[in-house]
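re the bet — no i am not wrong, look at it urself. input seq straight from the record:
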Amino acid sequence: MKQVFSKWSLIILPLILYACTKVINVNLNDAAPQIVVEGIITNTPGPYQVQITKTVNFDASNSFPPVSGASVRITDNGGIIQDLLTETSPGIYTTHTIQGIPGHTYQLNITIGSQTYSATSTMPQPVTLDSISFQHTSRVNKIDINTVPNYQDPLNVKNYYSFTQYVNSRKIKNTNVFDDRLSDGRYINVALRTDSAYINIGDTVLLKMNCIEKATYDYFYTFAQVAGNNNFQSASPSNPISNISNNALGYFAAYTTQSRKAIAK
Protein backbone atom coordinates (compact mmCIF):
# COMPACT_ATOMS: atom_id res chain seq x y z
CA MET A 1 0.00 0.00 0.00
CA LYS A 2 1.48 3.30 -1.07
CA GLN A 3 0.69 6.56 0.74
CA VAL A 4 0.85 10.00 -0.81
CA PHE A 5 -0.13 13.56 -0.06
CA SER A 6 -3.48 14.36 -1.62
CA LYS A 7 -3.02 18.11 -1.78
CA TRP A 8 -0.98 19.58 -4.64
CA SER A 9 2.06 21.41 -3.38
CA LEU A 10 4.51 21.04 -6.26
CA ILE A 11 7.75 22.98 -6.67
CA ILE A 12 9.81 22.83 -9.85
CA LEU A 13 13.11 21.29 -8.80
CA PRO A 14 15.99 22.39 -11.07
CA LEU A 15 19.17 20.34 -11.37
CA ILE A 16 22.21 21.18 -9.20
CA LEU A 17 25.53 19.84 -10.53
CA TYR A 18 28.47 18.88 -8.32
CA ALA A 19 32.16 18.40 -9.24
CA CYS A 20 35.28 17.64 -7.26
CA THR A 21 36.63 21.17 -7.27
CA LYS A 22 33.73 23.34 -8.39
CA VAL A 23 30.10 23.84 -7.42
CA ILE A 24 27.68 25.23 -9.99
CA ASN A 25 24.92 27.23 -8.32
CA VAL A 26 21.56 27.36 -10.08
CA ASN A 27 19.21 30.30 -9.64
CA LEU A 28 16.06 28.67 -8.29
CA ASN A 29 13.98 31.61 -9.54
CA ASP A 30 14.90 31.11 -13.19
CA ALA A 31 12.39 28.31 -13.84
CA ALA A 32 9.64 29.48 -16.19
CA PRO A 33 6.09 29.11 -14.81
CA GLN A 34 4.26 25.99 -15.95
CA ILE A 35 0.57 25.24 -16.24
CA VAL A 36 -0.87 22.96 -13.56
CA VAL A 37 -4.12 21.10 -14.27
CA GLU A 38 -6.24 19.16 -11.76
CA GLY A 39 -9.40 17.70 -13.26
CA ILE A 40 -11.69 14.80 -12.41
CA ILE A 41 -14.80 13.03 -13.67
CA THR A 42 -16.50 10.38 -11.54
CA ASN A 43 -19.46 8.03 -11.79
CA THR A 44 -21.38 10.17 -9.31
CA PRO A 45 -23.63 12.98 -10.61
CA GLY A 46 -21.81 16.15 -11.68
CA PRO A 47 -21.01 18.91 -12.09
CA TYR A 48 -17.26 18.22 -12.15
CA GLN A 49 -14.43 20.72 -12.02
CA VAL A 50 -11.09 21.41 -13.66
CA GLN A 51 -8.67 23.69 -11.82
CA ILE A 52 -5.93 25.50 -13.73
CA THR A 53 -3.06 27.30 -12.00
CA LYS A 54 0.57 28.24 -12.61
CA THR A 55 3.69 27.22 -10.73
CA VAL A 56 5.68 29.80 -8.77
CA ASN A 57 9.36 30.34 -8.05
CA PHE A 58 11.12 28.30 -5.38
CA ASP A 59 11.17 31.07 -2.76
CA ALA A 60 7.61 32.28 -3.43
CA SER A 61 4.68 31.51 -1.17
CA ASN A 62 3.00 28.15 -1.70
CA SER A 63 0.02 29.82 -3.40
CA PHE A 64 -0.39 29.05 -7.08
CA PRO A 65 -2.01 31.83 -9.13
CA PRO A 66 -5.21 30.81 -10.94
CA VAL A 67 -5.36 30.89 -14.72
CA SER A 68 -8.46 32.72 -15.94
CA GLY A 69 -9.86 33.10 -19.43
CA ALA A 70 -9.05 29.60 -20.65
CA SER A 71 -11.28 27.64 -23.01
CA VAL A 72 -11.93 24.23 -21.42
CA ARG A 73 -13.83 21.42 -23.11
CA ILE A 74 -14.48 17.78 -22.15
CA THR A 75 -15.70 15.24 -24.70
CA ASP A 76 -17.03 11.73 -24.13
CA ASN A 77 -16.21 8.70 -26.34
CA GLY A 78 -14.84 10.32 -29.46
CA GLY A 79 -16.75 13.59 -29.30
CA ILE A 80 -20.27 12.18 -29.10
CA ILE A 81 -20.96 14.38 -26.06
CA GLN A 82 -19.20 17.71 -25.61
CA ASP A 83 -19.30 20.02 -22.62
CA LEU A 84 -17.83 23.51 -22.72
CA LEU A 85 -16.96 24.35 -19.13
CA THR A 86 -17.74 27.68 -17.45
CA GLU A 87 -15.24 29.52 -15.26
CA THR A 88 -17.24 29.70 -12.03
CA SER A 89 -14.41 31.25 -9.97
CA PRO A 90 -10.84 32.27 -10.87
CA GLY A 91 -9.10 29.22 -12.35
CA ILE A 92 -12.05 26.88 -11.60
CA TYR A 93 -13.94 25.54 -14.63
CA THR A 94 -17.21 23.64 -14.12
CA THR A 95 -19.10 21.18 -16.33
CA HIS A 96 -22.78 21.44 -17.28
CA THR A 97 -24.14 18.25 -18.82
CA ILE A 98 -21.49 15.55 -19.06
CA GLN A 99 -21.95 12.47 -16.85
CA GLY A 100 -19.24 10.00 -15.86
CA ILE A 101 -19.93 6.41 -17.00
CA PRO A 102 -17.64 3.41 -16.32
CA GLY A 103 -15.89 2.20 -19.47
CA HIS A 104 -16.16 5.55 -21.22
CA THR A 105 -13.10 7.52 -22.33
CA TYR A 106 -13.02 11.26 -21.70
CA GLN A 107 -10.82 13.83 -23.40
CA LEU A 108 -9.91 17.16 -21.87
CA ASN A 109 -8.91 20.04 -24.16
CA ILE A 110 -7.65 23.37 -22.84
CA THR A 111 -6.70 26.49 -24.80
CA ILE A 112 -4.82 29.28 -23.04
CA GLY A 113 -3.86 32.02 -25.46
CA SER A 114 -1.97 30.32 -28.29
CA GLN A 115 -1.17 27.21 -26.23
CA THR A 116 -3.23 24.03 -26.13
CA TYR A 117 -3.19 21.19 -23.60
CA SER A 118 -4.98 17.86 -23.69
CA ALA A 119 -5.40 14.61 -21.77
CA THR A 120 -7.49 11.46 -21.94
CA SER A 121 -8.71 9.15 -19.20
CA THR A 122 -10.82 5.98 -19.29
CA MET A 123 -13.07 5.31 -16.32
CA PRO A 124 -12.53 1.78 -14.92
CA GLN A 125 -15.35 -0.51 -13.90
CA PRO A 126 -16.27 -0.20 -10.21
CA VAL A 127 -15.18 -2.69 -7.56
CA THR A 128 -17.56 -2.96 -4.60
CA LEU A 129 -16.31 -1.77 -1.23
CA ASP A 130 -18.13 -4.25 1.02
CA SER A 131 -17.34 -2.68 4.38
CA ILE A 132 -14.64 -1.12 6.51
CA SER A 133 -13.18 -2.44 9.76
CA PHE A 134 -10.31 -1.46 12.02
CA GLN A 135 -6.93 -2.93 12.90
CA HIS A 136 -5.55 -2.35 16.40
CA THR A 137 -1.83 -2.51 17.11
CA SER A 138 -0.57 -2.17 20.67
CA ARG A 139 2.43 -0.03 21.52
CA VAL A 140 3.79 1.28 24.80
CA ASN A 141 0.96 3.34 26.34
CA LYS A 142 -0.72 3.57 22.93
CA ILE A 143 -3.03 1.66 20.61
CA ASP A 144 -2.70 2.41 16.91
CA ILE A 145 -5.95 2.26 14.95
CA ASN A 146 -5.92 1.92 11.17
CA THR A 147 -8.84 1.58 8.77
CA VAL A 148 -9.21 -1.65 6.79
CA PRO A 149 -11.20 -1.67 3.51
CA ASN A 150 -12.78 -5.02 2.68
CA TYR A 151 -13.40 -5.84 -0.99
CA GLN A 152 -13.02 -8.54 -3.64
CA ASP A 153 -10.43 -7.79 -6.30
CA PRO A 154 -11.56 -9.07 -9.76
CA LEU A 155 -9.58 -12.01 -11.14
CA ASN A 156 -7.39 -11.44 -14.24
CA VAL A 157 -8.15 -7.72 -14.33
CA LYS A 158 -5.46 -5.14 -13.63
CA ASN A 159 -6.86 -2.86 -10.95
CA TYR A 160 -5.63 0.31 -9.27
CA TYR A 161 -7.20 1.92 -6.22
CA SER A 162 -6.94 5.09 -4.15
CA PHE A 163 -8.34 5.63 -0.66
CA THR A 164 -9.16 8.86 1.18
CA GLN A 165 -10.29 9.01 4.81
CA TYR A 166 -12.34 11.49 6.80
CA VAL A 167 -12.25 11.29 10.60
CA ASN A 168 -15.15 13.11 12.29
CA SER A 169 -15.66 14.94 8.95
CA ARG A 170 -12.02 16.08 8.87
CA LYS A 171 -10.04 14.91 5.84
CA ILE A 172 -6.80 13.05 6.54
CA LYS A 173 -4.12 14.65 4.37
CA ASN A 174 -2.62 11.37 3.14
CA THR A 175 -4.13 9.34 0.31
CA ASN A 176 -3.32 5.64 -0.04
CA VAL A 177 -2.85 4.07 -3.48
CA PHE A 178 -2.77 0.35 -4.18
CA ASP A 179 -2.36 -1.95 -7.18
CA ASP A 180 -3.27 -5.64 -7.34
CA ARG A 181 0.02 -6.88 -8.80
CA LEU A 182 0.52 -9.30 -5.90
CA SER A 183 -3.13 -9.82 -4.96
CA ASP A 184 -5.04 -10.30 -8.21
CA GLY A 185 -8.35 -12.03 -7.61
CA ARG A 186 -7.96 -12.13 -3.82
CA TYR A 187 -10.25 -10.78 -1.14
CA ILE A 188 -8.45 -7.65 0.08
CA ASN A 189 -8.40 -6.45 3.69
CA VAL A 190 -5.10 -4.59 4.02
CA ALA A 191 -4.89 -1.82 6.64
CA LEU A 192 -4.40 1.74 5.40
CA ARG A 193 -1.27 3.04 7.09
CA THR A 194 -1.52 6.66 8.20
CA ASP A 195 -0.51 8.67 11.22
CA SER A 196 -2.32 6.59 13.84
CA ALA A 197 -2.93 9.70 15.92
CA TYR A 198 -5.73 10.55 13.52
CA ILE A 199 -8.10 7.78 14.68
CA ASN A 200 -9.29 7.14 18.22
CA ILE A 201 -11.92 4.80 19.64
CA GLY A 202 -15.36 6.33 19.11
CA ASP A 203 -14.37 8.38 16.05
CA THR A 204 -16.57 8.27 12.97
CA VAL A 205 -14.53 7.29 9.91
CA LEU A 206 -15.71 7.80 6.35
CA LEU A 207 -13.61 5.97 3.75
CA LYS A 208 -13.77 6.77 0.04
CA MET A 209 -12.48 4.14 -2.40
CA ASN A 210 -11.74 5.16 -5.98
CA CYS A 211 -11.10 2.74 -8.84
CA ILE A 212 -8.50 4.57 -10.91
CA GLU A 213 -6.57 3.86 -14.10
CA LYS A 214 -2.82 3.30 -14.29
CA ALA A 215 -2.00 6.87 -15.37
CA THR A 216 -3.68 8.24 -12.24
CA TYR A 217 -1.93 5.68 -10.06
CA ASP A 218 1.43 6.61 -11.62
CA TYR A 219 0.81 10.28 -10.91
CA PHE A 220 0.10 9.77 -7.20
CA TYR A 221 2.86 7.19 -6.79
CA THR A 222 5.51 9.47 -8.31
CA PHE A 223 4.08 12.40 -6.35
CA ALA A 224 4.88 10.41 -3.20
CA GLN A 225 8.47 9.99 -4.41
CA VAL A 226 8.81 13.74 -4.97
CA ALA A 227 7.24 14.58 -1.62
CA GLY A 228 9.41 12.06 0.19
CA ASN A 229 6.43 10.71 2.12
CA ASN A 230 6.97 7.42 3.99
CA ASN A 231 10.29 6.42 2.43
CA PHE A 232 9.30 7.08 -1.18
CA GLN A 233 11.63 10.02 -1.69
CA SER A 234 13.51 9.87 -4.98
CA ALA A 235 17.30 10.20 -5.06
CA SER A 236 16.88 12.56 -8.03
CA PRO A 237 13.66 14.52 -7.43
CA SER A 238 11.59 15.45 -10.47
CA ASN A 239 8.00 16.27 -11.23
CA PRO A 240 5.27 13.63 -10.87
CA ILE A 241 4.30 11.79 -14.07
CA SER A 242 1.52 13.78 -15.73
CA ASN A 243 -0.95 12.76 -18.44
CA ILE A 244 -1.37 16.38 -19.55
CA SER A 245 0.27 17.26 -22.88
CA ASN A 246 2.52 20.20 -23.76
CA ASN A 247 4.68 19.87 -20.62
CA ALA A 248 1.85 20.82 -18.28
CA LEU A 249 1.81 19.43 -14.76
CA GLY A 250 -1.00 17.76 -12.85
CA TYR A 251 -3.52 15.15 -13.93
CA PHE A 252 -6.92 14.52 -15.52
CA ALA A 253 -8.65 11.46 -14.05
CA ALA A 254 -11.90 9.61 -14.68
CA TYR A 255 -12.68 7.16 -11.89
CA THR A 256 -15.46 5.42 -10.00
CA THR A 257 -15.96 6.27 -6.36
CA GLN A 258 -17.90 4.93 -3.38
CA SER A 259 -17.76 5.32 0.37
CA ARG A 260 -18.48 3.49 3.61
CA LYS A 261 -18.75 4.83 7.18
CA ALA A 262 -18.09 3.16 10.53
CA ILE A 263 -17.33 4.02 14.14
CA ALA A 264 -13.89 3.01 15.38
CA LYS A 265 -14.18 0.45 18.16
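see?? The first helix runs from residue 214 to 227. told u. also The two ends are 23 Å apart (CA to CA). so pay up
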